[in-house]
Amino acid sequence: MRTLFTTRWLVSHTFVLTMVVVMIGLGFWQLDRRVERNVANDEIAAAAERVPVEIESILDGLEPVVEHRRVIVRGQYLDESSFLVANRSFETQAGSWLATPVELDDGTVVVVARGWVPRLWVAGSDPRTVATPSDVELVGRVFVSVDGGLIGSGTDGYAEVSRMELSVVEEAISLDVADVWIQLEAQLPAVLDLPIPVPPPPLGEGPHLSYAFQWFFFSSGAIVVYGLILRRKLRDTATMDGDR
Q1: How far apart are the first and last CA of the chain?
Q2: Residue 212 and residue 137 share a domain
Q3: Quick check: 54 and 69 in contact, CB under 8 A?
Q4: Are residues 177 and 73 in the same domain?
Q5: 19, 33, 113, 148 - which has most CB atoms within 10 Å?
Q6: Which domain holds residue 31?
Q7: Which of 242, 225, 224, 241 is nearest to 3 (CA)?
Q8: How many structural domains does the chain have?
Q9: Same domain, 79 and 180
Q10: What's the pLDDT band for 2 if we cut at 50, 70, 90?
Q11: Is the pLDDT of residue 141 over 70?
Q12: Cα–Cα distances in angstroms (integers) from residue 73 to residues 23, 107, 113, 228, in the given order
């Protein structure tokens, strides 16, 4: 038995115990992520079920800003200030979001992410056209500004940002915009070929539960395997002692 308490084996015990604790911790972390995902899904679903409101009621503070809530926007597209949000995929295809500010009747400017365009269109190799009406009425989901946005290299026709951080957007397009932005769902006049409106996020649980089971399985496996190693070591030691 003393064999298992030498310096070498104590280091081994400590390493295995640490790995088991880490794997169990990762399993519970994945379970917590699953709970967080379900809570977020419930919030998204509840927001989407609310009756759509005029965007002015949110901008004036009469209605709270609840992300994913549908809002109604009426105004004029400022096509000359359209810009791209880079590195956005749609059905595994690479591309960007095309966003265009809308000027409301009172002069307030709200950014609308109109939808996805393929990388080939951005590069000028896609023949499909983007029709931008002047007067527009649209329904979309409202969001607040995010962090971490940067101004990209852009193209000849469009400025580019990495994320919808509205202070960065203001710098990129040289316009003052409202502190919320809209993800377009539908508009009148209707969208023709491009851009393709971005669908709401899927409300599934994701792989967190299966990942948690994997971590628990790995930790259990480590305990069993290490136990067998120790058992074999003790048996070999006993055999050697018996031969002496």
Answers
A1: 17
A2: no
A3: no
A4: yes
A5: 113
A6: 2-43+205-243
A7: 241
A8: 2
A9: yes
A10: low
A11: yes
A12: 49, 13, 13, 67
Q: Is residue 89 part of a domain?
A: yes
**CA 48, CA 183: separation in Å to the nearest integer?**
13
Statement: residue 3 has pLDDT above 70: no
pLDDT digits (tens, 9 = 90+) for 145-194: 999 999 988 777 799 999 999 999 999 999 999 999 999 999 999 988 89
What is d(CA 147, CA 25) in angstroms, rounded to the nearest whole number? 29
pLDDT, tens digit (0-9, with 9 covering 90-100), for 16-54: 999 999 999 999 999 999 999 888 888 888 878 888 999
**Domain co-membership, 114 together with 159:** yes
Asked whether residue 73 falls in the same domain as residue 179, the answer is yes
For 218-242, the DSSP string reads HHHHHHHHHHHHHHHHHHHHHHHHH
The pLDDT tens digits of the residues spanning 82-140 come to 999 999 999 989 999 999 999 999 999 999 999 999 998 888 777 787 888 889 999 99
Q: Are 184 and 112 in contact (CB under 8 A)?
A: yes
Burial of 126 (0-12, 13-18, 19+ CB in 10 A): middle
Task: Give the E-state strand segments of the chain in sequence order.
Answer: 53-54, 70-77, 83-90, 93-103, 109-118, 135-144, 159-161, 180-188
Three-class DSSP category at 25 = helix
